[in-house]
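Students often ask why we bother encoding 3D structure as a string. The short answer is that it lets us treat folding as translation between two languages. Here is a chain of 90 residues written in the first language.
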Amino acid sequence: MEMCAMLRITRSQRQDRAEFRLEGKLTGPWVAELETALSGEAAVRVCLLMGDVTYVDGAGVALLKELCERGVRIVERSQFVAALLEVNES
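And here it is in the second language, the structure alphabet:
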């Protein structure tokens, strides 16, 4: 039986910003789940900690790009995520 790839989203508050630690795969329904988790947050006060993200599909990359354009900062990114964002920025 094939297991569905999961994404864990953990929110913490750090002084003037909200940090969201992501762990797992940003794919399929988890893209919408991340969008929902971030709704209501001021984008310029949000940091995504993505060091433990192992895979991002096309919809996930599109969301990350949109979030960056709105002012969300992506920190602690894995080499995989950094490469994806670099490729998609050009």
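Translate back mentally: Helices lie at 29-38, 58-70, 79-89. Keep this in mind for the problem set.
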